[in-house]
Write a structure and sequence with these properties.
The structure is a homotetramer of 411-residue chains.
Chain A lengths: L2 E9 L1 H4 L1 H11 L3 E8 L8 E9 L2 H11 L5 E2 L6 E4 L17 E6 L2 E6 L6 E5 L2 E5 L9 E4 L4 E4 L3 H6 L2 H6 L10 H17 L3 E6 L2 H4 L3 H9 L5 E4 L1 H13 L18 H13 L2 H6 L7 H7 L3 E4 L16 H11 L3 E7 L3 H9 L6 E5 L2 H10 L4 E5 L2 H12 L6
Parallel strand pairs in A: 7-9, 12-13, 12-15, 13-14, 15-16, 16-17
Antiparallel strand pairs in A: 1-3, 1-4, 2-3, 5-10, 6-7, 6-11, 8-9
């Protein structure tokens, strides 16, 4: 290998298997490595430290390998100074742009380590006025100054600083998150405690919810959580809001145990009529304020003055007037709503949960709830440094969470 | 019940359980019924006919019940003449607009039964120049003349006319579609025969494909099917095309059995770099024509001059320059690409398959392939009058289909 | 068709789709039919009645078709007198033995309609001393008098007589059981009410439980239900009991969030040591009475003097001394424990739930709880006339059920 | 910690994450550790070596921890001499018996390292005439000499010796087995090559098959594989054989696409009649030899003179006369059939696959095929050192495998 570079990594290397992943990635990208030094510590609480030389056939491949392994918290031993290029077209990064992780990141500019604002994965880094922030590819503009290559960029693995903020129990559980063989009732209690603590520290709680929240009969519990102040921001899609509003508008017609969901459907007259009614009103807020909608989750969000971001998908009917039909615009709105969020609960939606995971910094803990174990493990592996998976149906999960958090909530 | 109306339904009422569904729906919508006449025929091949009186407390509820049960092919015994209203705002239907099914529909205008163009569910009916066509709510404009209420609208259940066009075997199998206990090898052969026959009759074959087509190693088979002329239109998302292009651009780096998909990810440098490269090229077509992309599914589509519609979602990175970021614009592009389609294959995507099912007329037969039985049954129940479900992984399904359809295809 | 016979069926033919199934089955068995008379009633509450002539090419095929359609409650219009044969070998029925359903059944003997004792599907009918009872094939003995053919056998569909015994809400919900789109919290309440009512009427409650009851942390809730008297009989396997006893013996070693379940296993020392310890004690009861086991579900069952039947499977380690290693002997023990049972709860086990469904009469209502929708629908379709499916994890289900049923239960 | 012991482990410690698991297990069992020495090698191909001191509060706990971590290939640095106790009762081990892994194991007796015969997990070690073999708890007899404690027992991790016997491709793929994102067509080819190679070396191929093999229409492919000599031993249950024989006896009645499997069932007359017919014949072999059964998988096995072991379960009807109703006797028959097996294919059965995994030595490679990713990963994690998971339906998998292995096989 003609080109090589020494990298280092700190942390609980044995417990997390991170070193194995780093070495795998080096090989998968066509590089090679040599372990120069490894200090695992002697007892469980000691931190480890490793130094590895990574080699590749070309400088550009080496740069890509080094960027790749940064997702595991591996940095160059001698980081150097950041290099910058100017974007030559709107919506396109320079060829060898630095591709971000969602970890805390610092950039070496003029001899100073400058922290990256709003860490988000799969972005570029834009430098402006001595500050550095992430920018998604769709938002880069010609003339923007973009960090290129790996030089002068360091990531910081989440270790002690975050754990002080996290409820100890939640933190320790989240190590073993993505498995079906967990005592769910205990997990729900841990999530409840974590939410209380996060709120007490002044952070906001973000919910990402799928339509099953309504269809499993859990909207009463979620409404109670909204009213009790435990839902600061809500991300979802057209289906969640439409189904909730349909129940508010036409609730008596389609009662409990309605068999319609499992029957042949060649159209859903009531669904599209709900959408049309809200379009006529102008917005969900207008429909609530005019007295047209008097109950349900969306009603509670409006009444409580909380913010929601609904982003559309290609399967939507309508959609509702509040729904972002442009997904890139929707992503921007979601990013804007993330400020101040200290905890995220994802319930019964893959699409919007992955979308949220894409833009969340690794420092925000996440709880993922779904009946499908593969979805739970996919979400918890991919997003936060501290993600707790619960294999459970939305209905009973929300019932129990409301029982824990809302005084006098009657199941 | 103060308001009532006689309705009738023809067809194999016993075999399909359709009458039970009609009566259920009447009760679920708060109406009541009385069976006036039922003729089931005496043998298996006889068609049945039933007349039922449906009642409700109000005229508007009665109208909604009658619209609802039209999804089962139930029409008023005395249809009357269509009533029309003028839309008073862009993107909003009149209050009591007629909500469509995806069945063949005719409208009684000035004593003439006028067929509805482009049947699609959950739309309105726009009348213009003596013709009637479906219009989704987002596309209605102030001043448009819209059919309101149920009067003068009749649906036609798909029976004999379509089955002549369908391969007999496919048609008979599709009755028992949504079950895991099916001999898959036989189903794949039936789909191959159906595709050949549809092509021979001059219809186009539409494919809706998810990213698993690439990640399960099936892109070689799908590419062969494109080159052999069995993929006229392709619907998908950003992930399918990006993963396919990533393999074309960086294939050697991430080989078979790459473990990356199941590992912790805090960013996917190669994925976003692929997106950036194609954005720089301007489009997928430009990247193919400039020689940047030389293999894979998208390459084959461009080379064969076939059309594809990629519609974005909120979880997308980038996205690619060809992707519709506005989902309503994407739906319009999909609708435009449906003309001439005589068969649809849906493989390993729920999002885009449901979106396609939403806009397909019931007369186009569909094959749905997924490893999850619930998804297969959901899709087959919801869309075509003749839908065949195959619980199978994309990889082996496409291998076997290519073996059936492409001469000299080597697995 | 040279051989034919008139059959009749009563009941809600439209609602249940039963007539379609009957006609399907006739065709699938190679017969043909002619609908002679059908009276659907005019309103929702009217009962229907149909008379159909079924034909076949041979008398034996006709007899098999008639037996087959009896599972749908279809009887010969002129039943005639029962015919009997003598079994000529142990464990083998006469060739044309009558194969039972699990419906209430009566047999015409000497001009009298004699009710069948212990209805159970897939058995023969043994006649002895003017009484008739079911016998499984393994238990028939040479010389036993067995009903042959269909003559003189009538089944009675469960209609009004049972619904009087059932909580109305449960009965109406159970019509729509096998779907994920149900409000689970409401279903759990309905099950709680049903259990209370069944107990108040003096019936016993049977539980069939899988190991997930312990591994999801629900054993505390199930133990509370045992102590409160809501678990009269428990069916399960070696894994459920061993895991419960392992926690009682070694609980502190493997705490919450233990990662062991998802790791490579080449042996499970603690599991087999638990089995050995109980084998040394002689039985679970002995281990409880000697003070070796002081907590958990099995401990509570022994202390409360309730009966349990543990039947082994080929995947068992050990097994525990209480486990029936012979599955036919295990089935006999389960049958013996069914007397007096008026409600069954199946939680998180397919194997033992199907086994229980095989021997339960259709008149005993069932609640099935599993995270897998396919398993829930499979179980509810197959067993009781009134089966309620809940797609939920064992953990939260049992927590909520205990909260409903056990005063002062603290989640 | 008052009691402690030095242990060592060799192998690719980083790649496999094995060291992390060892240390986790020590903590989970209430012990503590100190890493004394670690040598990871410098490049990818170097083997690693670690020495760790493990401590515990009591000698018995320390012994249990040391036994536990042996499943990861960790041995005492100074193994010492084996200690033996005499079993004092039938079916019960001495208190501190050594609990086995399924790894190659050697025992230090009189200064000699004696290899353990028939490695199998969760057994004891019986010493007799200078030889050592595994014995399951049910088979131990009073007076047997049993190894107790960890002293003098060493396991050997499967590294280079086995890989020489394995097809390189299979071996490398099996590292990444349990994921859905695999190119299935390539996996099937690798399995075909591995089977051919194993046969060429004189080993036998064991198949473990579930009833879905028949119900997915794959019995023609499996029959062809039997006839071509690729199925030496077959493990299964009553359902597999009965369904196969039912199709052979009554095949024409229940044709393709039969809807019966998804319909309400209150009895299955044809199934139990099949069982009764074979019981009357005396055995499956007798039914084949008398000409009663003329096709299908069981017919082919009998004609080819291959052995099968059918073990019953509590959900069985009948069962067939060949089925072991006693599961412990069934396990013994399975063990006896394992001699000479060099490869195992598990298709569409969890129960019998887990049972087989329980008794297989780690040295036998395994391919697991199921549509459920959780089952595939559960099976591959648990059994062989080289297990390849394929998330696929039995039907298409067997079709493609037969196409690969059987000349002139026509799909």
């Amino acid at each position: 290998m003609r080109f090589h570079e020494q990298v280092e990594v700190h942390g609980h290397l044995m417990d997390t298997g991170v070193l194995a992943r780093v070495l795998d990635d080096v090989l998968a990208y066509g590089g090679d490595y040599r372990v120069d030094k490894i200090d695992l510590g002697r007892t469980h609480d000691d931190e480890s430290h490793a130094v590895v030389t990574v080699g590749a056939e070309s400088a550009s491949r080496l740069a890509r390998i080094l960027m790749r392994v940064q997702v595991h918290g591996v940095n160059k031993l001698v980081p150097g100074e950041a290099r910058m290029c100017v974007a030559d077209a709107d919506g396109v990064f320079p060829e060898d742009f630095y591709s971000t992780t969602n970890l805390e990141t610092v950039v070496h500019l003029d001899g100073q380590w400058v922290p990256v604002e709003h860490p988000e994965m799969d972005c570029g880094l834009i430098v402006s006025g001595g500050r550095v922030r992430t920018v998604p590819v769709a938002d880069v503009r010609a003339g923007d100054v973009i960090v290129c290559g790996i030089d002068g960029v360091k990531v910081v693995l989440p270790v002690s600083d975050h754990s002080t903020r996290l409820h100890g129990e939640f933190a320790s559980m989240s190590t073993f998150s993505s498995t079906a063989a967990q005592p769910q009732a205990v997990l729900v209690k841990a999530i409840a405690r974590q939410i209380r603590e996060v709120k007490a520290e002044g952070y906001q709680v973000l919910w990402v919810a799928g339509r099953a929240v309504v269809s499993t009969g859990a909207s009463r519990a979620l409404t109670a959580l909204v009213e009790a102040g435990y839902v600061d921001v809500l991300f979802g899609g057209n289906a969640l809001a439409t189904l909730d509003l349909e129940r508010a508008l036409f609730g008596s017609a389609l009662g409990l145990g309605s068999p319609h969901s499992r029957r042949v459907q060649r159209g859903n007259e009531q669904h599209i009529r709900t959408v049309n009614t809200i379009r006529r009103a102008g917005s969900i807020r207008a429909a609530v304020e005019s007295g047209l909608v008097t109950k349900g989750v969306m009603h509670a969000m409006v009444k409580a003055g909380k913010s929601f971001v609904l982003v559309g998908s290609v399967r939507d009917d309508g959609p509702l007037p509040d729904v972002y039909t442009d997904v890139v615009a929707g992503q921007r709105a979601m990013r804007a709503a993330l400020r101040g969020v200290g905890f995220t609960v994802m319930v019964a939606t893959t699409l919007h949960s992955v979308a949220t995971g894409n833009i969340l910094p690794a420092s925000v803990p996440v709880a993922c709830v779904d009946t499908n174990p593969s979805i739970v493990s996919g979400l918890t592996d991919r997003t936060s440094a501290q993600a707790l998976g619960v294999v459970a149906d939305a209905g009973l999960f929300l019932e129990q969470l409301a029982t824990e958090l809302v005084p006098d909530y009657q199941t």
